[in-house]
Design a protein that fits this description.
269 residues, alpha/beta, Rossmann fold, 2 domains, six-stranded parallel sheet, four-stranded parallel sheet, 10 strands
């Protein structure tokens, strides 16, 4: 039996899913969260489909062993390549693709939508398929941006950093020229450099944060299933990683905007 006071489980290939944790804490401040970052095997974006599916199944199994009431794949790559994972899980599940695609459809005014993500996400065309399934009139243009992940995880995140500006321009020039009015940040790392992206594209382009949209979607799903935590106390977050704890703590501060991250534990899958 699924208990409403159990934690929400979130997993990602590394640290990008922490942007979803941050948003979930805003949307559902009373919920407990268990996060697993598979930092020993990051990145997933350059792996084969079979490998990504296997990793995702292992990640979900770990969270189930902790008794979670819901699982969120806060990873654009997993959500794109292993979207059927929810069909075999005994708890509610969501990835980031469907909530984010719907938000983009709701936001666009000219029907021209851009999608940026890892190589695996872009190759899968998951966001494009999800958007066109709603209405074939939309025009969807994709761009893989693998270096964005490296920028974020190495602390190059300031919109004033020339390196960040150059890479943003290199990747997004075509999308800007196409006159998109909506851009899906199809990797949970990307919101960290959203200011640089927004500065380059201009305020007339709406950025869709997959972490935020997924948090809202998850909240609605839990409400419909009567699984919201009824406690009035602030929820707690516990973090598990498959590589070094100290490296995770240092980089996690960038994603969460917190200086002290205490409950981090190492596990081996």
């Amino acid at each position: 039996m699924i208990m409403s006071d159990s934690a929400i489980g979130i997993f990602d290939s590394g640290l990008g899913g922490l942007t979803a944790v941050k948003q979930l804490e805003k949307v559902l401040p009373n919920e407990n969260i268990i996060y697993f970052g598979d930092t020993a095997r990051v990145p997933y974006g350059s792996r084969s489909q079979q490998t990504i599916v296997r990793y995702a199944e292992q990640d979900a199994s770990f969270l189930l062993s902790k008794g979670v009431k819901m699982i969120i794949a806060a990873c654009g790559t997993v959500s794109s390549v292993a979207a059927d994972l929810g069909n075999v899980l005994p708890v509610p599940f969501t990835g980031v693709v469907e909530p984010t695609a719907q938000a983009a459809v709701n936001a666009t005014k000219n029907g021209v939508i851009g999608v940026i993500g890892t190589s695996a996400t872009v190759s899968s065309k998951s966001y494009k398929k999800a958007i066109l399934a709603k209405d074939k009139k939309f025009k969807v243009y994709q761009q893989e941006c693998p270096l964005f992940v490296s920028l974020v995880e190495n602390g190059f995140i300031s919109e004033e950093d020339k390196i960040v500006q150059l890479i943003v321009e290199r990747y997004l020039e075509k999308l800007k020229n196409i006159k998109i009015d909506t851009l899906i940040l199809g990797c949970t790392h990307f919101p960290i450099i959203a200011k640089a992206i927004q500065n380059y594209l201009g305020d007339e382009v709406t950025l869709i944060d997959s972490g935020r949209e997924t948090a809202i979607y998850a909240a609605n799903m839990l409400k419909q299933k009567n699984l919201l935590n009824k406690s009035t106390e602030k929820g707690e977050a516990v973090y598990y990683v498959s590589d070094t704890v100290e490296d995770f703590r240092k980089t996690a501060q960038i994603f969460l905007g917190q200086n002290d991250i205490e409950d981090v534990y190492h596990i081996t899958l």
